[in-house]
Structure formats: structure tokens, C-alpha cells
Amino acid sequence: MKNISFKQFSPYLIAVVLFVIISMVYFSPLIEGKRLMQSDITHWQGMSKEISDFRAKTGEEPLWTNSMFGGMPAYQISVKYKANLVKHVDNFLQLGLPTPANYVFLYFIGFYLLLLVLGVSPWISLAGSIAFAFSSYFFIIFEAGHNSKAHAIAYMAPVLAGIILSYRGKYLLGGVITALALALELNANHLQIAYYLLLIILVFGIVEFIYSIKEKKLLNFSKSTGVLIIAALLAIGTGFSNLWSTYEYGKYTIRGKSELTTEKENRTSGLDKDYTTQWSYGIDETMTLLIPGFKGGASVGKLSTNSSTYKILLENQVVSENQAKEIIKSLPLYWGRQPGTSGPVYVGASVILLFLIGIFIVKGRFRWWLLSITILSILLSWGKNFMPFTNFFLDYIPAYDKFRAVTMILVIAEFAIPLLAFISLRNIFQQEHDNKKIFNVVKYVYAVLAIVCLIFALFGSGFYDFTSPADANYAKIYPDWLINAIREDRSGMLRADAFRSLIFITLMAAALWAFLFKKIKKEYMIAGIIALMLIDLWTVNKRYVDNDKFVSKSSFQNPFLASKADSLILKDPDPDFRVLNVTVDPFNDASTSYFHKSIGGYHGAKLRRYQELIDHQINMNNMSVLNMLNTKYFIVPDQQRNPVVQINMQALGHAWFVDSIKYVSNADAELLALSKFNPKTKAIVDKRFEPLLKNVVAGTDSNSKISLVSYAPNHLQYTYIAAKKKLAVFSEIYYEKGWNAYIDNMPVSHLRANYVLRAMMLPSGKHTIDFRFEPKCYKTGEKVSFASSLLLLMLVVGMLGKESYYRFFKK
Hints:
alpha+beta, 4 domains, 31 helices, 18 strands, 11% strand
């Protein structure tokens, strides 16, 4: 047995301890039991309430909820995929840390592993992990509640670590690490980040392939690629239930192709182009990578008492000193072209310096790979500001049109920039080049960046007028002198942060000079870099995620208070009706879903047909459509803007028999027909369903009756009596991939009517109808997930045993 020295492991143990300490100190209110108030998590609590309550009551997964948009699958809301055993590894790696400190810790650990694999020393890797983890966007997303996004970002680096090991000839070790890390990535359940990771991997593969040809190592490349394909398939298998259900559902959502033929120039096979590119980074806004306040920061930001706005408020004596201090806490500081933002993408001025140095001193595949993906992500982040390039990806790159907010692709740059920066630093410390030559590179790169910073610090006000597109709206409520003061403060933020970035690149350049010319020891140099990273990035992040964002645990767990209107509606014993709340933005709201089954909701993957119904009928206040959706209550504002209840006596209830059917030829005609029809007597049906309606008897039948007798989100039961064969329409959303219909426990077919509803031809007599949500993708997928994740964990245990044996026991 080999001797095991604590000193051998101490750098890694110290790093882990420091990562825990830094994560918890930054979010210190977590130690007091407080929780970060995150808007999307609050929304999630609203939209998942019916699912959570049903799960707690029955122990089952409903897989469907009626609380939003009339009804939709719960796959991307709150489904527990219990068969995927990889989640236990994920929980172990988070060390039980509270959110969001747990995700910051994962940021650290993942990037640390990647740098170690690339031969970076443990201490430099520690500094590099801080640089990566504290990239501003990675913290800003916590304030918004994008936890799954942060979770997925954290596992990007470990996936690349496994891939790199495999291409370096460690096929088995690399393959197992890749499979586990990718399984963890998919378990995080943020497909947009996973898609961007795929782009990173594809570019890496292309570069690796080119170098394998150049170095005549195609056989090794083929072996590694084969191992990685197997690893990827195994990882996909672990999350098969989630991936299959998401893929199946995605084709029917706003991310799938529309059947409508209008607005063809704006449509893709996924999201519409204007929706995809609504959040596009401005071309000049890319400067925030170097200067955080280049575009003013967040849409609603905080100023100091030294600001022009504060001073002019007091000078004009329009408010008291305390009122002025409150006003400057929430002002429109962002003046870029995005509809809104929680803050800039800032990777650190000194990190940018090291990255640019790396372009010149890092040779080979890693330079071209990381430079390529950085440029690619920046160009794609411009979205509608660079439409020729964006159109190419939307039209020709598979699945690119399934994702919105193209600004998010800058996560690739935030991964690549610190990675190349610290590979560069590794080369400097290993003195792979002549020190004077390296310093010449440092000197010229520093000079360019310093000039850029000085230009914007001294002359920025000459380039811009600091006007935001939103200023026209603020001009309606703010006087001109206040708008002008805000613009002056925007200018001041650019000037101050340009000087700030100049200071940090100067300190880094000075540290490099001191090390290269042996004015400072290596240990002090590394400590200085760690301090520099923390001071630079920590202070910027605190502008957007500070201790004021935390609330008590009880406030976090109870995000919505029922209004008098909500309380009145909740007294209705009927288990299944809908509510339209116009005191909020109904289609960007989760509070109504917390208490009721809402016509609206909050979700980025609602059913496309329902979205089209919103756009073309519900937004036009078509009462016929609201009635067929069983909208029993409206919540409206009274004269004091308080929510009050209005009951809709025309709501059609749970189900009804119709007297006639109007067949239409396509989706355009079906949607248009809803503009003027009586859903109580007529059903609009696409001709493709006509074979299911043979021998239906038209005309009225006063003796026919249908009633809901039992409700659960995944199982509705009705009884009916009819004197003749009739078509019944149900006020439930039609979704063919999972909803099965039964009459007296015998399976029968059902169809779509009125663009979004379920309908069924019912035989005469007295019968029982059941609708059960029984998607095969979940049941079968869970079996595949369990088998795959069990096999993967066995491989991981075997690999750990093998590596431990060779490292510690074999002489």
C-alpha cells in the first residue's frame, strides 16, 4: 500500500472548504434562516400549487394541472422523476447547502475539476473557479429565480472535463465522468443551457478532429468519440422519462410548429422570430463584459446620495430627504435596447486581460476552440441586432428556434473567457515562454484595454446621450429635470466603471510584471489574484443580489395572500371551473393559479393552440370562448382598484351536448369560426376528425344530461344520459399524448373541438365516462431511467474502486 499524505490532499480540501465558506458568506442571511426572494420561484409556487397539493394528498404524480392556461402537462412545472437515481449524487454534491449557496458551490467545484484536468495547479484553479463562479450573470439569475439554469450551468465544466480526458486517451475514466456529469446536467432540467453546452462540445469536436488529422491520430479520435457516444446515450437514458415527455410535449407548445398559415415571415419550426429575439444584446452592449456599468446596470437600480438625481430632488425641494433616499433605490438606470434586464453580463476586467493575453500565448487546439465559441456566442447574443447571422441559425441549425432570450447564449462566453484566461495564467506560471516575450504581450494587451477604458471614462458622454427607449414612458410621470438627472447618473456610471475597470486591469498587469521579473513570489502572486477576483466580481454582484433581497422563511413559504375576491370564490364547492383575473396581467401571472384554475398563468411552454386562442380570441374579449372554457368567475378592479368578483352566469359548465357540428378544413378556418358562434349548440370540428363522428344524430334533445361526478387533475369522471347518439363537448383542454377516454371502463376515441377542447361521440343510454391522463412517455421512461441510472452508478463505483486501487494500494 502506498503512503497517503495529508499534504498531498490538503490543497483540494482547502479549496472545498473555501468554496463552502465563500458561498455562505456571500449569502450570509441564509445562516440566519432567511431565504432569497426569487420572482420565478414565487411564480413556481403559484403554478405548482395544485400539483403539490395532489401529490401531498395521494402520493401520486398527477402529470397534468388545470391551474394554468385551462390545463397543461406538468412536465416542465413540477414532476418528480423518482426513477432517476442520479439525483442522489446531485444532492450529495450540494453538501446540504441552502439555495442558492448550493449552486454557487457547484459552480466552484465543476470549474475546479476542469482546470485540474487541464493541468492547472490546485491554487490557480481555485482562483479560476472564483472568476468563473462570480461572473455577474451567474448571480443575477438567482435574483430572478432561475435556479434550474444555474444548476445546469454548474455542470457544464465537468462534462467538458470528462470529454477532454477521453480525448487524451483515458477512455474509460473520461467516459464515466462524461456520462455522470452529463446525467447531472440533464437532471438539472434546463434544456437551453444543455443545448448551448452541446454547441460548445460540437465546436470542440470539430477542432479536435482537425488536430487529429494534422497529428495523424484519427484512430484515437475515433475511439474517444465512440466511448463518448456511449457515455452520452447512457446519460440520456438516466433522464429518459423527462426528456421523452418534454420532447413529446414540446411539439404541441409555442416551441413547436404552428398549423396557422398567417405571419409566415415571422414563423419558424419553433418560436416566432420576434419572440425568440425579444431579448437581444446590443452590439455595443457587449462592452459590459469589460465595463459593468456600460449600459447603466439593471432596469430598476439603486443610486447613492452622491448622485445627481438625489441632489436635484433635494435642490428642488419636491420631497423630503427620507423620501429622496427611497426614490433613488428604484430608478430606471438601464439605457440599452433590451425590454428590461436585471443586470449586465460582466466577467471581470482582469479576467478579460488574461483572456486576451491567452489568445497570443496559448497555442494549439484550446486557443482556437475557446476563441471560436466566445465569438460565436457574442454574435448570436446580438439577435435582432444582427439578423443575417441569427436568421441563419433560426432557419438551418436544428432546435435553435426552440429557445427564447438569445442573450442567454453569453453563458458560453462566460465559460470560455475565464477558462482561456487561466490556461494562460498556467502557461505564465510554468514559464513555457520567454518572460520578456510574455511581458511584451501583457504590455500591448494592457495598453489596448487601458485606452478603451480611458476613452469611455473621459469621452463617453460624447458618444451617447444615455437615453433609454423606456424614457418616453417615464416622461409621462417624471419632470424633464428629473429625467435629465437620471441620464447624467447613467453617464456617471459609465465613467466610474470605466475607471474602475482600468484600475483592475492595471493591478493585474502590475502583478504579472512583478511575477515575470521576480519581484514577487508565486504564492503571493496567487493570493493576490484570488483577492483581485473576489474584490472585483463580488462588489459588482452585490449591486444586484445583496442582503436586502432576503426575507423570512415564513414569507418565502407563503408568497401569496388571498384577497376577499379569492376567498369568496374559494367557497364555491364546484371542484372544476375557471377564473379570469384582470386585476393582474392574466397571461403573465401565477398568483391566480395559486388559488384557482386560471384562464391565464405563467409559463414559457404553454400549448401553442391555447396561445393562439389567447392572441386571436380571448384578448378580443370573445365571451363565447370564455364561456366554453367554463370561466365561471371574473376578478375585476373596483373604483378603488381593489379586486372584486363578478359571476358569469353564461359559463357552460363541465360538459354539454351540442345540436350541430360545423366542419372546417384547417386550423385557420377553425380559429376564425370561433369569432362568431354559439358553443352551447354548435361544435367547430376539423375535418380530420370527421370519421369519428359517423351517425351522430343532429338536433336538440332536452332529456340528455351530462355531469361531472369526480375531479382530480389527472382523472375526471362524468355520468350522462342520452336518448340518442350525441356529440358532447367538455370544457377541458385537448391533448392527445396521454389523455385516454373510457365509457363504462372500455377505451374509446375522443377528438378535438372548438380549437382546444375535448369532445366525444356518446352512445345513447346511461353511462359513465372517464378521462385519465396516462402518458406512456412517463411510465415507460421511468423504467429506462431507473435501469440506466443504476448501471451508471455501478460504473462510477467501479471506476472509483479501480482508481483508488491504482493510486493508493498498487506499488
